[in-house]
Amino acid sequence: MCFKLIMVIIALFSNGFAEFSFAQTAISKHRDGVLQYKNRNYSVAIDLYNQALNLNPQMLEALNDRGICKKELGDLKGAMIDYNKAISLNSGYASSYVNRGNLFSLQKEYNSALIDFNKAININPKLDTAYNGRGATQEKLGQFSKAEFDYTAAIEINPRNPLYFTNRANVRISLKKYQDALNDCNKAISMNPNDSEFFITRGNVYTELTKYTNAEEDFTKAFILNPKSILAVYNRALIRFKYLGNDTGAIEDCNVVLRINPNDGAALNIRGLSKWYSISKSDGCLDLKKSMDLGFIHGKENYLKNCR
Description:
Helix 9 packs parallel to helix 11 and helix 13 (about 230-240) packs parallel to helix 15. The chain is mainly alpha-helical. The protein has helices at about 1-40, 40-55, 60-70, 75-90, 95-105, 110-125, 130-140, 145-155, 160-175, 180-190, 195-210, 210-225, 230-240, 245-260, 265-280, 280-295, 295-305. The chain is built from 17 helices and no strands.
């Protein structure tokens, strides 16, 4: 009798130890997946999340994070399946509502996105990512004051994320709160001086403040940080042509844009005008004609005005 009891205890202990071992292995696989995600090795991360889920099919973090990686790889359907699965397993898991809300917003399903962000906030009123996601959706809907409120809430919860400051700066530009927007940009850049997008945003603020030399400097910094940024070099071309009288610089910038995208109607328009005023009206009209043929409305306007 004692022998049988001992064997039962041993069996129970062995089963429990095996379950504990599986759980620890799943946690380890998930942790390794997070590291791969941070290094932008999304396919490798997905494989590790799959291994974690094979060991623990109800691991919410692995489902949620696998969905994020699928979204980064363009598998929006697969990402949605993972978020839905995580929510079905635990309707109080706020992070999956946030990520599903971001996915809805990306797909322009704004009402569904707002519902998910509101659910996340109801579950966890201190979840900064939920306010940031809702703010981004409100911004897309043109609700700039509501977006500013949400970005401010995200900042109050997590003032260490520079992205929240530039997000708020962008809506403050729309609200014509230029000095407040400049303060936000300066804060973001002080936290991360290596993000080209922050300098582009501040360059846009300087443009609105008519500080065109400062704007040119920021677009230049952005382009140095990210030589593939068409927006940075195009914005600099626009500043040089429209406000600084630097047609040669504007043409050079447009040439950079057009080497990356030969069918950029906006760049052809600026280059055409710069050539028209400084080099050759006929050469300028060729660019304006091509801009018009590509469907760029300002290219058409300028061609009809200057070349007919």
